[in-house]
Design goal:
The complex is a heterodimer of chains A (about 290) and B (about 325). Chain A has 12 helices and no strands. With about 290 residues, chain A is an all-alpha fold. The chains are: A mainly alpha (about 290), B alpha/beta (about 325).
Chain lengths: ~290, ~325
């Protein structure tokens, strides 16, 4: 009778209800990526554009039929996979929102420790694995929704996004959300203080974010960074989502739409399983 | 029949022995109180029974199931109300109950009706759809009691159920506990460091100190442990010291002032009818009879000493205040 999915449903219900109860969080979810898009996307967007180039230096030979700004535009298009910078960046922004949102979701585990709610779930006769899976699933649903909001924002702001790619991109985002929520929960279960978790967030998220191809392409990264990027699961989210949203296929080996999905699914299941194992062993004894 | 059996329970943390060889049993339908100063090991004992902590040694059975070997079965039988609030403040009262119910395998219409019934029991029905963060301390505690009862447990564990509550909320919680015992016959294991609470509610009390049980019994038995009751008799006519010779089974007898006699006895309840009979037989008459039993307070201080119990709490409880 306890083999049913009730605990999973209960925890999904809780996470979603909590999210709906906190309106301010909804605003910040939209506002934060919007700031990045406006200031970084629009700001750099015109830098990485041929049209902004006006002064033609003398003595530079120009092939017939092409202007310098055309050539620059071609160069940038090649770098950003055939799209302009704003489109490039906006398509990565959804992945970043999901990544940050999911990871920070672990914070609520620490609140639960401090506000005693963890005990409530630990004395319940429900399967621990299902409880923690429900919680992760709930967080993943929420952050995927947040990612969708950012995609829709991007659709309005940047020209190059494909409406038809959105449903497939959402699948990539959701699987990534499961993986990163699990990671956040695993770390949070091992920590006791909010300060410690925030420090870890700062320490981990920034490098992972910058080495994932959200803001600049992999191809122009220094070699050592490329190696890190290859082992960064977020790179696969960014690459896959960008491919489906814009068609830009700029990645490192082994990134391809199919491989991205495989990598994310493997990492996601491993993280989810590990979260279950860690939660099974969790006790109030510290 | 015994619902909870604790045999030689020992719980050691890294360098501290919190519980050191505790044994007791709780019968079905009984209210059993663990009474003791802070840091006596009450909460640790309760956490072991609620399957939150594994015993270092000893045996703990709840409803016949061993807490270390079959924690899942024990959890289904037990409802717990922790000392520190464990509600989700961002959810409504109803949603807190709903999530709890689903975790305990309830669902659908049955769950909804049970939630409403329990909210009604603790008189919070009208606040069902309000977020818990707006609740007062007393309301939160009542909601937690309702939540603990939701799954219809055999055993309700209450850790300091009235700590930090105002007198009104306290009286209300006492009321609920009495009703649970009389109407539902639910077995209740509670901890408290309030003597009046144990005296008022518990069928039996175990006094704990330094991880051990130092005394156990009914409130009356514990009070009698300290030995003597004192009976005061004020006669209608002047009497002399010789009146003392009339009473048998008396430890000590003194004439306080004219017509006022003090009798020190083992058990005033039992001896008082005898004393009255003697008075009448000797043709004397009384103006006033009173007797004093030692209070549980005196017993408690007698057994646990008067020194303050300063012990460091876990750092969690310090940070929680900062982030609330």
């Amino acid at each position: 009778m306890y083999r049913d999915l009730s605990p999973l449903v209960a925890m999904v219900y809780r996470q979603v209800k909590r999210w709906m109860g906190a309106r301010s969080r909804l605003v910040s979810t939209v506002l934060n990526p919007l700031v990045w898009i406006i200031f970084l996307g629009l700001g750099w967007g015109s830098v990485f554009s041929g049209t902004s180039f006006s002064g033609l230096p003398t003595g530079v030979p120009v092939p017939p039929g092409l202007s310098i700004s055309d050539m620059i535009q071609r160069y940038f298009n090649a770098i950003f996979g055939g799209v302009d910078y704003l489109t490039f960046m906006v398509s990565g922004m959804a992945s970043m929102t999901v990544f940050m949102g999911s990871f920070i979701g672990g914070l609520s585990v620490i609140w639960d420790k401090q506000f005693g709610y963890l005990k409530e779930t630990l004395v319940a006769p429900a399967s621990r694995k299902l409880v923690i899976a429900g919680r992760i699933l709930g967080d993943a649903i929420i952050t995927t929704l947040q990612g969708l909001i950012v995609v829709l924002l991007g659709l309005a702001l940047a020209g190059g996004l494909r409406l038809t790619g959105i449903p497939i991109a959402i699948v990539y985002l959701f699987i990534s959300a499961l993986a990163f929520s699990s990671l956040g929960v695993i770390i949070a279960l091992k920590l006791t203080s909010v300060e410690g978790f925030q420090m870890l967030i700062n320490l981990l998220t920034m490098p992972l974010m910058f080495m994932s191809g959200v803001f600049y392409p992999f191809t122009t990264m220094p070699d050592w960074m490329k190696v890190f990027a290859q082992f960064n699961p977020l790179s696969y989210t960014v690459h896959g989502v960008r491919y489906w949203l814009t068609g830009a296929d700029v990645g490192l080996y082994p990134m391809s739409p199919v491989n991205d999905l495989i990598v994310l699914a493997v990492v996601g299941s491993a993280m989810l399983w590990l979260a279950g194992v860690v939660f099974e062993k969790t006790s109030i004894e510290e | 029949m015994e619902v909870i059996v604790v045999e030689n329970l020992v719980k050691k943390y890294k360098d501290v022995t919190a519980v050191n060889g505790v044994s007791f049993t709780v019968k079905r339908g009984e209210v059993f109180a663990l009474l003791g100063p802070n840091g006596a090991g009450k909460t640790t004992t309760i956490h072991v029974i609620a399957t939150l902590l594994k015993p270092t040694s000893g045996r703990v059975l709840v409803g016949g199931f061993d807490v270390s070997r079959e924690p899942g079965k024990v959890r289904r039988l037990v409802g717990v109300v922790f000392q520190e609030p464990s509600l989700d403040n961002q959810l409504t009262a109803y949603d807190n109950m709903y999530v709890h119910g689903r975790l305990y395998g309830l669902r659908g219409r049955e769950l909804h009706e049970r939630i409403m019934e329990m909210l009604d029991f603790v008189e919070l029905k009208e606040f069902a759809y309000k977020q818990v963060k707006y609740f007062s301390g007393g309301m939160k505690r009542r909601l937690e009691i309702a939540r603990g009862l939701l799954s219809n447990p055999d055993v309700l564990i209450l850790d300091e159920p009235t700590i930090g509550l105002d007198p009104q909320s306290r009286a209300r919680v006492w009321d609920y506990i009495r009703r649970l015992r009389s109407e539902l016959g639910i077995t209740i294991l509670m901890t408290t460091h309030y003597l009046d609470e144990a005296d008022e509610l518990a069928d039996r009390i175990a006094i704990m100190d330094h991880g051990k049980i130092v005394a156990m019994g009914t409130s009356l038995e514990l009070k009698n442990m300290l030995g003597s009751d004192v009976i005061y008799l004020r006669f209608a006519q002047p009497v002399t010291e010789s009146v003392c010779r009339e009473f048998s089974g008396v430890k000590d007898c003194r004439l306080l002032k004219d017509a006022m006699v003090e009798l020190v006895v083992e058990n005033a309840n039992k001896l008082l009818p005898e004393v009255m009979k003697v008075v009448v037989e000797r043709g004397l008459s009384l103006q006033e009879v009173s007797y004093r039993k030692p209070s549980l307070n005196e017993v408690f201080l007698h057994l646990t000493g008067r020194e303050l119990r300063d012990s460091l709490e876990t750092p969690q409880s310090v940070t929680r205040r900062w982030h609330r």
